[in-house]
Design brief:
Two copies of one chain form a homodimer. By secondary structure, chain A is an alpha/beta fold. Chain A contains eight helices and eight strands. The radius of gyration of chain A is 20 Å and the shape is elongated. Chain A binds a DNA duplex through residues 5-7, 15-19, 21-22, 34, 36-40.
DNA sequence: ATTAAAAATGTCACAATTGTCACATTTAAT
DNA sequence: ATTAAATGTGACAATTGTGACATTTTTAAT
């Protein structure tokens, strides 16, 4: 639960400390007060939300602290491993989730930049995963890469629900690398 | 009677340890001292009361105590709703997750005190959910109540994997209430 | 364009709170 | 029992909040 002081925010925004305090007092910037004399603290996420709401630039120092990772959701271990190999060769850290439950837990745990999702997992509705994720504002920046052997119509539907890209099986390592690189650099 | 050290509180509040000790000394935060040199300890409930009194954010890890809730994992909406009714009558807040992915996300989001889990969900391996959850230290205090129409052997296996209680379908509202009350009061 | 009023931001000094540091001591872990 | 990690303390440094007022920027009307 990282927080920022009014002074730090003042510096980030290149603005006077007095002004930051006024933003907080007027409710424009959500914050809370320490019990002492009421020194202000702001959650980083609230500050970022504030910056985005006002189209203000986000300081590099606040852009996702952890090194960005990829979450591979697939119940076929060999395929998952293969995707992981490609990711590693491209220089990215990744984690494998077998099944929906693990995927949900690991998604919130690792806050990955990209989630690759196998649509044709037995007994797991990939569409609802996409749909549910997209309705959570917390994951609005997550890139969803759908992987599937299904037909064109199915991939289209995934895109409609909010997937960012699709890869039809079988796909080349090169294609996968391209997609990963594209989104990891965003 | 879980307690927190001054250091843990400092971390939760993203504040210096010195400051936490001052809060305690000035009576703003209720605590007590160990016999040794007087190292400080604070009851979780006192800490939460303190946070609420000052409109400070409550760390995820403490949500299960601050706002105890029940996560109902079931893909049969009628049954899920019925469990929710029982929970509400007993005075507990609850959320329904349809499918494993939602369950995973909502588990980390709400940090519930209890998770009811339908073992016989099509295409979702309830056992692996139990197993995976139990291996995460984060959820070591989560109570897992398995609900199923399966035979005794299956329920036994769930317990072996780490479930805390089982309810065989059909179950009475009374039995469910008993189980919920037992764990919610822990 | 010009101008005046309104709103937002900056300045300054002082007091209160919070952070830092080194070191002794206690807890926790092995 | 031994060792590593966490905690308490005092003195002092740095940051922060506040009120009153000066400046700047925005808005609206002419």
């Amino acid at each position: 639960m990282k927080t920022l002081t009014s002074g730090e925010i003042a510096e980030y925004c290149d603005v006077n400390l007095r002004t930051v305090i006024r933003w907080i007092e007027s409710g424009k910037l959500k914050g809370f007060k320490l019990p002492g004399r009421g020194n202000n603290r702001v959650l980083v996420e609230d500050f970022i939300e504030f910056l985005e709401r006002h189209d203000m630039p986000i300081p590099d120092a606040l852009k996702s602290t952890a090194n960005p990772s990829i979450l591979i959701v697939d119940d076929e271990m060999p395929l998952a491993k293969s995707i992981q190999r490609v990711a590693r060769r491209a220089g990215y850290e990744s984690h494998i989730a077998i099944g929906g439950f693990q995927a949900g837990i690991m998604l919130s745990q690792y806050q990955p930049k990209i989630m690759t999702l196998d649509l044709s997992m037995p007994g797991m509705d990939g569409y609802s995963v996409i749909d549910f994720t997209r309705k959570q504002s917390r994951y609005k920046d997550l890139k969803i890469v759908v992987i599937s052997a299904l037909d064109h119509i199915s991939l289209e539907r995934a895109l409609d629900l909010g997937a960012d890209a699709t890869l039809q099986k079988p796909f080349s390592n090169h294609d996968l690398t391209m997609v990963l690189e594209q989104y990891m650099s965003m």
